[in-house]
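Worked problem 6 (solution included).
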Amino acid sequence: MRTIETKVYTFDELSEEAKQNAIESIRNSYYEFNEFGQWAVDDCYLFEPIHKELTEMFGEDFYEILNKDKKYKDTPLIGNNRKDIYFDCEARYRYLDCTTAMEINNDTFFLLWLGIPKEMHGIVTYNIYSKMGRYGDTSIEFDHIDCEDFTDEQNDLLNDAVDKFDEHIMTVLQNISDSIDYRFTDEAIKEDIESNEYEFLETGEQF
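Solution. The predicted structure is:
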């Protein structure tokens, strides 16, 4: 019988070369399997417009006004119920379908954010939908509540609102992509090593 002793090290105890080996080994394991996409969309504020934009438009007390008389005071303008979110970050197939997941918590603020003035709110209805096709993005369309025609000026405002919404969807997709990409960086891997208290052999191989 033989007794073999194995020395194990924390990440900080490794040599610089072994540290890099450890990082590369973990990164390669992430390429084989990860749930970073699911983590990226598991965010209550995934669809929320930029905070600075909202406060500049509606004031620093925007969320207090939005959530007045509500149980939770941090509910976003555009919520995320996390249902049926489909996306692809690859350039060739780049799309985001989040129609079911988006929850508009205040129509007035939502329409104002899109650039539609209050005087039009009584005649406008909107529908958030998925464009046709295998890689159809989520978009928005507007109709007149009385099935009448909009004026040219009103149509211009609504077309601008569609463009703004579509651009916002692409911004959300880019945020998802950035979140996933970050998980493969040295910085993120070091955070994972620390939080999971991984141990290594002298060469950097995970123990």
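Discussion: The two ends are 23 Å apart (CA to CA).
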